[in-house]
Design a protein that fits this description.
Elements: H1 13-23, E1 28-34, E2 37-42, H2 43-59, E3 67-71, H3 76-87, E4 91-95, H4 101-110, E5 115-118, H5 121-129, E6 139-142, E7 156-158, H6 159-172, H7 176-183, E8 189-194, E9 204-208, H8 209-222, E10 230-232, H9 240-253, E11 256-259, H10 266-273, E12 277-279, H11 282-298, H12 301-322, H13 329-349, E13 357-360, H14 367-375, E14 380-384, E15 394-395, E16 408-409, E17 414-417, E18 422-426, E19 433-434, H15 438-444, E20 451-460, E21 463-469, E22 474-475, E23 481-482, H16 484-492, E24 497-503, E25 510-516, H17 518-527, H18 535-539, H19 542-559, E26 570-575, H20 595-601, H21 603-609, E27 615-623, E28 629-637, E29 639-640, H22 646-649
Parallel strand pairs: 1-11, 3-4, 3-5, 5-6, 6-7, 10-11, 12-13, 13-14, 25-26
Antiparallel strand pairs: 1-2, 8-9, 9-19, 14-15, 15-16, 17-18, 18-20, 20-21, 22-23, 24-25, 26-29, 27-28
């Protein structure tokens, strides 16, 4: 099946689905784990489900050009609802399932949502809570009926009932859906994905079928993906990464997507499925590594020493062996032994034993983290893209992986660097427009058709290096370059540091906020008999400050060897009294730092970092999961870190 051409007529997602139902009707298209048991739908069955939802939506009045909100965890019927809307010429608008009700209002209003398909009671409750602010919202269809039997809100229906109506319509009018699918065009909007809104209100990015299929086909060809791949679909459906990997590429290549039982069972389900193709943002790889290191700290002395020894072997030669480069016979022999004793069991624990290709994107990944996974034999690669480019700009070719780049321009993509260092992109995988924002569209796409990414970077021997967001790159008071994201990634490589926010633009020195990783530091504290009552208490322990200082100083030692960023070593830091949280507007739903908001909210702490103070009191308003508000107060210590002199910076 490798390289099997898609028929020319299969140029929209509904037509691709129909193509697979015709050529591989019995092959698994979707699996879902429910009550501990994997349920499977073939391509033929999946298309029947899609057509039933589509006909049911049509019975409710859904028509060409309507927008359909999709809210929930990765579920087969939510993916099918996306395709069903596309069958009718409508536009699915996936939304972040962990967003609080108030956050949903903007998208519901902006997109003029009349129809919504949601997963369960939690999402229904959110929509009912804000329904008076979204008068256009007429129909709410839910997948999981638990807890909803006695709800009687107008327009609230089980998706099962809508499908039953659709099946009846398809029996009476078997030509209806086929006729609607035939009306579709590659230029029709396939999906609307809202940007994360790091600096303002999110924008609806309208992407055409042709653009997404261009991106998906390019990636499938680049990595030689076939219909035999297996992928675990667990990332937010509202994120462009999930839309490309779990939806578009699956419909182009015909491979199987697997939906986990819940967010809590992802690791177990990952091991059971053993995917061959895997995608996750850097934070997932960071969390997995943290879990591994926590387990190793709890292991016996012999096992710890063996792990440390063979991981040193892996760091020395593992990535080179994976890339097929020459390695000394002794190292190759030691690596093979390490594969039996350490790397193989570790890949199995991570659920990555069968992975042929793994990608990370969405944010810069630290080179140390990247090298760790490649060193243990996982073919982890970076890709570069954005919502507006269908996450398709650069890919890393096998055998030519560089830790400090995001690869070469993907097939069919042109990349150039503007005079100010901004990365510009032109390809067939670009947005059609921003919804209701012709001004933003005109601002982002220039007269030559290049999309302005907002990222600063440069081409190095044909490979693209991303420095940071262009708006975030600045200069220290002395004129040296300042790139906060690069510094933060150095800090976040350490398992004890979950999040970091650096400051230093226009200043004499760099300072930082730190969030400790509660699991990692909590485990460390318990093994040393350090009692604590919660995050705030643990974060302010003198022992924890000493632990984090070691991490900061190790990061400084590495920064000191970087000619461009040697002046960006962290001088002072504060361990925050609370975790940065999307619910408190400090992070986006994709966990990107909202720098401007944080700088304003914690201005008193920034001022303290750049003063002679050794501590600073702060009281912060927080939102709880149940909607209540409260405050967290603490007298925060200010930590001092050693920085390295100029002669050390020049070391190899």
């Amino acid at each position: 099946m490798a390289g099997e051409p898609i028929k020319a007529a299969a140029d929209t997602f509904p037509r691709l689905a129909a193509h697979h139902a015709a050529v591989r009707p019995g092959k698994p298209a979707v699996r879902e784990k429910d009550l501990g048991i994997w349920q499977t739908w073939t391509w033929k069955q999946a298309v029947e489900e899609i057509y039933a939802i589509a006909a049911g939506l049509a019975e409710l009045g859904f028509k060409r050009g309507d927008n359909l909100a999709i809210i929930g965890d990765n579920r087969p019927r939510l993916y099918w609802s996306m395709c069903a809307a596309q069958c009718l010429g409508g536009v699915p608008v996936p939304m972040y399932q962990d967003a609080v009700a108030a956050e949903m209002v903007f998208v519901l209003q902006d997109a003029g949502i009349r129809y919504a398909v949601v997963e369960d009671q939690e999402q229904v409750d959110k929509l009912l809570e804000v329904r008076d602010q979204c008068p256009a919202l007429e129909h709410i269809l839910y997948d999981d009926p638990r807890g909803l039997h006695h709800y009687a809100a107008a327009g609230l229906r089980r998706l099962d009932e809508v499908q039953a109506t659709g099946r009846a319509r398809n029996r009476d009018h078997p030509e209806f859906i086929a006729g609607e699918v035939a009306k579709g065009s590659p230029d029709d909007v396939a999906i609307m994905l809202y940007t994360s809104g790091t600096t303002g209100k999110p924008k609806g990015v309208e992407v055409a079928h042709g653009a997404l299929i261009f991106a998906a086909s390019g990636g499938v060809g680049f990595d030689k993906l076939t219909a035999d791949e297996e992928i675990l679909s667990y990332l937010p459906m509202a994120w462009v990464g999930d839309n490309l990997f779990s939806y578009a590429q699956a419909l182009v290549a015909g491979f199987t997507i697997n939906c986990p039982e819940s967010g809590d069972t992802v690791m177990t389900d990952l091991r059971e499925i053993g995917p061959t193709y895997y995608f996750a943002p850097p934070r997932v790889f960071e969390n997995l590594l943290t879990q591994v290191l926590i387990r190793m700290e709890d292991a016996g002395a012999l096992k710890r020493r063996m792990f440390q020894y063979f991981m040193e072997v892996a760091r020395r030669c593992g990535a080179e062996i994976l890339d097929g480069k020459p390695v000394a016979f002794k190292d190759r022999l030691l690596y093979a032994l390490g594969g039996v004793l350490i790397y193989g069991p570790l890949r199995n624990v991570l659920g990555m034993s069968r992975i042929r290709v793994a990608y990370t994107a969405g944010a810069a990944i630290g080179p140390d983290l990247f090298r760790f996974y490649r060193s243990i034999g996982i073919n982890l690669k970076q890709l570069y893209g954005s919502t507006e480019t269908c996450a398709y700009v650069c890919l890393q070719p096998d055998g030519k992986i560089r830790l400090d780049t995001v690869g070469i321009p993907a097939p069919g993509v042109e990349v150039k660097i503007a005079g100010n260092g901004e990365v510009l992109v032109r390809s067939g995988a670009m947005l059609k427009e921003y919804y209701k924002r012709p001004d933003a569209t005109a601002e982002s796409i220039d007269a030559e058709g290049y999309f302005h990414t907002g990222d600063a970077g440069f081409l190095d021997d044909g490979q693209l290096k991303i420095i940071d967001r262009a708006k975030d790159v600045g200069k220290m008071a002395g004129g040296a370059m300042y790139a906060p994201n690069y510094i933060e990634n150095k800090l976040k490589f350490f398992p004890h540091i979950k999040e970091a926010v650096a400051f230093g633009n226009g200043r004499e020195r760099v300072c930082a906020f730190i969030n400790i990783d509660m699991g990692s530091v909590g485990n460390w504290a318990e093994r040393r008999g350090i009692a604590y009552s919660g995050y705030t208490d643990l974060a302010q322990k003198a022992e924890v400050y000493a632990l984090i200082r070691e991490c900061v100083e190790q990061a400084n030692a590495e920064l000191a060897r970087d000619a461009m960023l040697a002046d960006s070593q962290v001088h002072r830091f504060i361990i925050l009294h609370k975790e940065l949280d999307p619910d408190d507007d400090e992070l986006t739903r994709t966990r990107k730092v909202r720098r401007g908001f944080i700088a304003e909210k914690y201005a008193v702490l920034i001022d303290a970092l750049y003063s002679d103070k050794t501590s600073q009191f702060i009281e912060t308003l927080v939102k709880f999961e149940d909607g209540r508000r409260g405050t967290v107060a603490a007298d925060l210590k200010i930590g001092e870190a050693n920085v390295f002199p100029a002669d050390v910076r020049k070391a190899a």
